[in-house]
């Protein structure tokens, strides 16, 4: 049974629906990402779950308790949720310990029980040794870990994270992805993580809600989003690859090399469908489909190429050896996924 359900929730600003009829059923302990381009309504969805925004339509239910509907609005502090922001929002004049323990101090916890509980949270993010420092003397990643510890002390049912890595450099982001996953595993809490970075969502989440213009495009596992995107939009938003127009209806089909060869040999005809070709499914062979190399990017262990088919459509692929611009080669496409036109 789902722990947290969003049932057809919508939010309008004026005439404009920024969140448009979103439904999700989230299991207890799941790590969920809300993923989509800037302005697609991710943060507004998160803020509705947190209780910072009212709903215009639909319901939000946590553990059978109605949290929000157009008629009902439980206050944020009564939802047993905790939110981690991009900006950390740490008190500069409080130590790491007292920043993390703020919610417990507010509840009147003092002395050793207070220190023990806050230390447990700090240890969970490997910050026990910095308990007496002030935030100015911490790196960005350490500050973000204080913010995580702070949300952990109150044992929330649901942790809401709004682009928490956006201010960190690329190396630190990768390290923090591991921190978040460990933190999630330790707490057993449900995580809802907003990001516009698909690699980040794929690396951490069990399930991803892909949003576009306020609507839910697909609600699925990272593997399914990559292998079986429900729409052309998701296919191009998630991962690398080429979408090729084809003459037949192929939506939802797993296409093998013979099917692909047939589709491409008739590609001058009218287009009724499309297929997604990932670069790892394209290989250079002695005898196959004619392509002409257009573009090359050196990737260290291999090159990434873009090449044109005879009909002008292009595919991307990887190859260990150097190919020149304009060079004619033959490729085999082992696998493709059928999409609507
Ligand atoms: N208070 C508001 N009044 C009017 N429009 C708003 C308000 N808050 C958000 N919007 C608009 O709603 C849309 C969705 O905003 P939201 O912040 O949810 O998007 P997002 O997907 O989180 O984007 P980003 O990744 O850029 O934060 C945007 O077009 C935004 O300009």
From TrEMBL:
Keywords: ATP-binding, Cell membrane, Membrane, Nucleotide-binding, Transport
PROSITE patterns: ABC_TRANSPORTER_1, ABC_TRANSPORTER_2
Key word Cell membrane present: yes
Domain ABC transporter: 4-238
GO MF term (any one): ABC-type transporter activity
Any Pfam family: TOBE_2
An example Gene Ontology CC term for this record: ATP-binding cassette (ABC) transporter complex
Protein name: Putative ABC-transporter ATP-binding protein
Organism: Advenella mimigardefordensis (strain DSM 17166 / LMG 22922 / DPN7)
């Amino acid at each position: 049974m789902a722990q947290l359900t969003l049932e057809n929730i919508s939010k309008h600003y004026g005439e404009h629906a920024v969140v448009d009829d979103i439904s999700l059923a989230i299991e207890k302990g799941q790590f969920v990402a809300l993923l989509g381009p800037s302005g697609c309504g991710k943060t507004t969805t998160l803020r509705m779950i947190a209780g910072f925004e009212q709903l215009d339509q639909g319901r939000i239910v946590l553990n059978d308790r109605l949290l929000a509907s157009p008629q009902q609005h439980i206050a944020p502090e009564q939802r047993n949720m905790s939110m981690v922001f991009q900006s950390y929002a740490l008190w500069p004049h409080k130590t790491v310990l007292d920043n993390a323990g703020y919610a417990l101090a507010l509840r009147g916890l003092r002395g050793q029980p207070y220190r023990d509980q806050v230390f447990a949270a700090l240890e969970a993010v490997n910050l026990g040794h910095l308990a007496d420092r002030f935030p100015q003397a911490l790196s960005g990643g350490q500050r973000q870990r204080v913010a995580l510890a702070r949300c952990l002390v109150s044992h929330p049912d649901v942790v809401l994270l709004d682009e928490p890595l956006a201010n960190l450099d690329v190396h630190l982001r990768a390290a923090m992805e591991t921190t978040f996953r460990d933190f999630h595993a330790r707490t057993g809490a449900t995580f809802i993580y907003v990001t516009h970075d698909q690699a980040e969502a794929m690396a951490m989440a069990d399930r991803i809600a892909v949003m576009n213009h306020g609507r839910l495009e697909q609600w699925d596992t990272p593997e399914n989003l990559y292998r079986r995107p429900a729409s052309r939009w998701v296919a191009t938003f998630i991962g690398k690859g080429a979408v090729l127009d084809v003459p037949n209806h192929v939506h939802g089909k797993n296409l093998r090399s013979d099917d692909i060869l047939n589709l491409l040999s008739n590609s001058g005809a009218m287009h009724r469908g499309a297929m997604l070709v990932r670069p790892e499914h394209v290989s250079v062979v002695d005898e196959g489909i004619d392509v002409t190399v257009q573009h090359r990017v050196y990737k260290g262990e291999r090159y990434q190429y873009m090449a044109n088919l005879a009909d002008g459509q292009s595919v991307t692929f990887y190859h260990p050896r150097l190919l020149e611009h304009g060079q004619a080669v033959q490729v085999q496409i082992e696998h493709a996924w059928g999409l609507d036109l």
